[in-house]
TrEMBL record:
Family classification: Belongs to the type-I restriction system S methylase family.
Domain of life: Bacteria
Descriptive protein name: Restriction endonuclease S subunit
InterPro entries: Restrct_endonuc_typeI_TRD, Restrct_endonuc_typeI_TRD_sf, Type-I_RS_S_subunit
Pfam families in the cross-refs: Methylase_S
Hydrolase in keyword set: yes
One GO MF term attached to the UniProt entry: DNA binding
UniProt xrefs under Gene3D superfamilies: DNA methylase specificity domains
Keywords: Coiled coil, DNA-binding, Endonuclease, Hydrolase, Nuclease, Restriction system
Positions of the Type I restriction modification DNA specificity domain: 275-401
Entry coiled-coil feature ranges: 383-410
GO biological process: DNA restriction-modification system
């Protein structure tokens, strides 16, 4: 071992100061050949391997089992085994490694490895969690076949090298990241609960199509809501950026609203010359006619994050004149307006991902809104407060994820 390679990470737990040693995984992990021959597990115990959620019950994760009636040839997985999927994913062209957190069975196409006295499988999973590290590790070992299939034996996937501390430090590191992952999962669960609550309240605090009052209202309001044309409560904005008051190109993200194009795409899609673009000011709205699976009639968002920005003239821009602005934000978070747009968009005309609806037709759409401005304001303020809480929770979650990313770089070599 005179030529062994050793290193130390930037951040370590107290009490550990020995060098980490580079070793082949074949020297420290054991290939599992155990099959479900006695049918100790059935279709309900089949596991899926997710990059985001780890090992999960397939029925709970995907809504059904994709296994056949006979699962006797499936591989048995025990808690803290290491699984290698051998399936390409976006960002992980050679598949992923995941630590098993529950017992079950998986497809015989996957590889399963046991821990040994000198290597703790969850540590290896964390080490190879980074897509770049995993790709660097696997690329010399794997060959790609027809239809992008991955060709490598269970044993062959262990022929690469990574750095190991002693097994006590491996367990300490694994326990730390397990705790951090649990915290991230908890914060993500809170975020999802808040988003589901908002979705439910949007359904209950706005009248369903054809109705004149919502299911839930603030005390003191009993009048029917009325239909108003968008053109009667707002004014179209066609202001051009002739004097280059702004060079900030914007795009509409259905999830995040009007955002900086460069930050969102990591590049500028807009032309270098943005003098002929629309100039938006804070508080103005834009309708993006681009449709997607989740947003079949496009998205309407308000500029909140910047004082000014520029948008392609493919967008329809407007500002509220006779309606509460926060109420309008909430209204366009519902799907109540979809029917109106669908009735006016040209039949079958969806060219290059854009709905064929003119500005005149868009402003001719009917909105059902409260006649009382105070009710509009209360609804708008309620959802504004909820959006702020969701944004705060999302920010907390992102900070935890960034912290994990930084620690993965500093606690490994």
């Amino acid at each position: 071992m005179a030529n062994k390679i050793t290193k130390q990470p930037e951040i370590r737990f107290k009490g550990f100061n020995n060098d980490w040693e580079q070793r082949k995984l074949s020297e420290v992990l054991k290939v599992s050949k155990e099959k479900n021959k006695d049918n100790g597990f059935d279709k309900n115990d089949v596991l899926s391997v997710s990059r985001e959620y780890g090992t999960v019950n397939q029925i709970e994760y995907q809504g059904r089992s994709f296994a056949g009636a006979d699962v006797s040839n499936y591989k048995v997985v025990k808690e803290n085994d290491l699984i290698y999927t051998k399936s390409p994913l976006k960002g992980a062209p050679y598949g992923i490694f995941q630590n098993a957190t529950i017992n079950g069975i998986i497809s015989p196409l996957y590889a399963v490895y046991h821990s040994t006295e000198i290597a703790y499988a969850p540590y290896v999973s964390i080490y190879l969690k980074n897509d770049n590290i995993a790709t660097h590790y696997l690329s010399p070992l794997v060959s790609k076949g027809a239809k992008n299939t991955i060709n490598v034996t269970d044993e062959g996937a262990l022929e690469g090298k990574i750095f190991f501390p002693n097994v006590l430090e491996q367990r300490k590191i694994s326990g730390f990241f397990k705790s951090l992952d649990d915290t991230i999962a908890l914060q993500n669960c809170k975020l999802e609960e808040m988003q589901l609550y908002k979705k439910a309240m949007l359904q209950k605090m706005f009248p369903k199509n054809g109705e004149k009052v919502p299911e839930i209202r603030f005390d003191g309001f009993t009048d029917d809501w009325e239909q108003r044309k968008l053109g009667a409560i707002s004014e179209r904005v066609t202001r051009k950026n002739k004097d280059l008051e702004s060079t900030l190109p914007l795009t509409i993200s259905a999830q995040y609203g009007l955002v900086d194009q460069i930050t969102y795409f990591n590049k500028q899609i807009a032309s270098k010359d943005v003098s002929n673009y629309y100039l938006l000011e804070k508080g103005e709205f834009a309708y993006n006619k681009s449709y997607s699976k989740d947003y079949p009639w496009g998205a309407v968002k308000r500029l909140d994050n910047y004082d000014k920005g520029v948008l392609s003239t493919l967008y329809i821009v407007f500002k509220p004149t006779d309606v509460d602005s926060n109420f309008l934000v909430s209204y366009y978070d519902t799907d109540n307006w979809h029917r109106e747009v669908s009735m006016r968009a040209a039949e079958g005309a969806r060219n290059h991902g854009l709905l064929n609806i003119t500005a005149n037709d868009f402003f001719d759409t009917d909105l059902t809104i409260p006649t009382n401005n105070n009710e509009q304001q209360k609804i708008g303020a309620f959802f504004k407060s909820l959006d702020d809480a969701i944004a705060l929770q999302n920010n907390k979650l992102n900070k935890l994820k960034e912290m994990k990313k930084a620690l993965l770089q500093k606690m490994f070599v």
